[in-house]
Amino acid sequence: MADRHDLRRHERQDSDSTVVVMWRDASGNDKFANARALDISDVGLRLQMPEPLRPQSYITLRAEKLGIHGQASVRHCSGRGGKYIIGVEFSAGLRRPRSA
Fold first, then answer.
1. 3-state class (DSSP) for residue 3
2. Quick check: 33 and 48 in contact, CB under 8 A?
3. For residue 21, how far is the Cα from the chain centroid?
4. What is the pTM of this model?
5. Does 6 score more than 90 pLDDT?
6. Cα distance between residue 11 and residue 8, in whole Å
7. Segment 16-64, tens digit of pLDDT
8. Which residues contact 26 (CB under 8 A, 6 or more apart)?
9. Do residues 31 and 23 make contact, with C-beta atoms less than 8 angstroms apart?
10. β partners of residue 10
11. Which residues face 28 on adjacent strands?
């Protein structure tokens, strides 16, 4: 069986940048958190966050160091050691600058 990472369409690069994440919780309240980008590709990020996010929900990202500001959709979320690992896919129009 092939390694899951071998099936990815876009190359990922390790990252250790801070990403500000904004979203609405189930009650409609605006929420903010500082997340850590674990890796990045042209079309998405893998984040470590202090709380879970619902798959298929939309979030706003801002990461000055990575040159990213815009929306993304949550593709998956899993708990790991009191933190949450969240995979997000950039929404249409948001792409990582080549210099990041």
1. coil
2. no
3. 8
4. 0.81
5. no
6. 7
7. 899 999 999 889 999 999 999 999 988 899 999 999 999 999 999 999 8
8. 54
9. yes
10. none
11. none
